[in-house]
Amino acid sequence: MGKQMNWPIVLNEGELTLQPLRLRDRRVWLDLRARNREWLTPWEATSPLIEEQKTLPTYVEMVNFHKREGKAGRSYSFAIWFHGKLIGQITLGGVSYGAFRGAHIGYWIDKEHANKGITTRAVREVTRFGLEELRLHRIEIALRPENGASKRVAEKAGFVFEGLRPRYLHIDGGWRDHVVFVKENTRI
Predict the structure, then answer these.
(1) HEC letters along 98-123
(2) How far apart are the C-alpha atoms of 15 and 100, rounded to whole Å?
């Protein structure tokens, strides 16, 4: 088992704050997602079982799910706040201990705040949390090969290209190839 964390956890790095979404963040989160729908659609996970997936979880269901996962130590999802403004979300998910001691990072950012280094800072902080505080051995970022901005984030955050995973995740309505970047903990 890993180190027990008291959820909720807030991570700070200068004017960047990473904290779990709260119920009171609903309106601003929904507005942000609506403004960025077209920008995010090509990169968003979808279900291959469309007939079974009638509706997406509500905001309240999503927040409660992330709360349960955080308390259980399986996944740590954070809203990205910059200068007090909600601009995205980042998750350290699939946390596994035992012989693997690994996880993966996923994120999205408001189009207006893209390409400003903020996402890289958030990835670095979540990576620090995973490697130093949870003492994970390895963290992965899987991204679509054509997502140059996300590739730059992974590289700037110190992740190293590991390889291609064909048809790895169901994204934007189909099974999509992903390239995987990895950062390992050299201290354990």
Answers:
(1) CCCCEEEEEEEECHHHCCCCHHHHHH
(2) 34
CA 111/CA 39 separation, integer angstroms:
7
Global pTM exceeds 0.70: yes
For residues 87 and 28, give the distance between their C-alpha atoms in angstroms, rounded to a whole number.
9
Instruction: Return the CATH number at 110.
Output: 3.40.630.30
pLDDT digits (tens, 9 = 90+) for 24-53: 999 999 999 999 999 998 888 877 775 555
Q: What is the domain range of residue 127?
A: 11-136
Sheet-wide strand order for 85-96:
11-13, 16-19, 76-82, 85-96, 102-109, 138-143, 174-184, 160-171
Number of domain units in the chain:
1
Contacts 24+ apart (CB under 8 A), 60-68: 60/23, 60/26, 62/21, 63/20, 63/21, 63/22, 63/23, 66/20, 66/21, 66/91, 67/7, 67/8, 67/20
Classify 156 in phi/psi space as left (phi over 0), alpha (psi -120 to 50) or beta. alpha
